[in-house]
User: Fold this.
Amino acid sequence: MEYERMLDRLYMMLPEKTSSMERFELPMLDISVQGKKTLIRNFSQALKAVARGEKQFYKYVTKETATAATIEEGKLVLNGKFFAENINRLWANYLNEYVLCHECKKPDTQIIERNGVKVLKCTACGAMSAIRKL
Ligand SMILES: [Zn+2]
Assistant:
């Protein structure tokens, strides 16, 4: 009885609502090396989770690693061996520039074109940030 009452009190102390920032967990990439290739096994899934097209991150990662890659059944297959932590660092950089609002860091953003320039528009705070062309 006493224990249940304690639990009740604990639940009451938790905030009722959490902001979208707290709900959003950045997906990590699931990486494995097979022979001379590096696979991002959850490539399609991860991009779906952050609401971005596959082509953009494909361009980003091939440019940053200076290697060729193919998309096979939802996986990205990079030519060459790469450390998982390096690929995940690229992924984090990509998210910071192309997914998370540069001002409030929320993921509620869209990429729009403004006067021929691509910008990251935040639907949460309204900020518009320039992004590099890929
Ligand atoms: Zn914002």
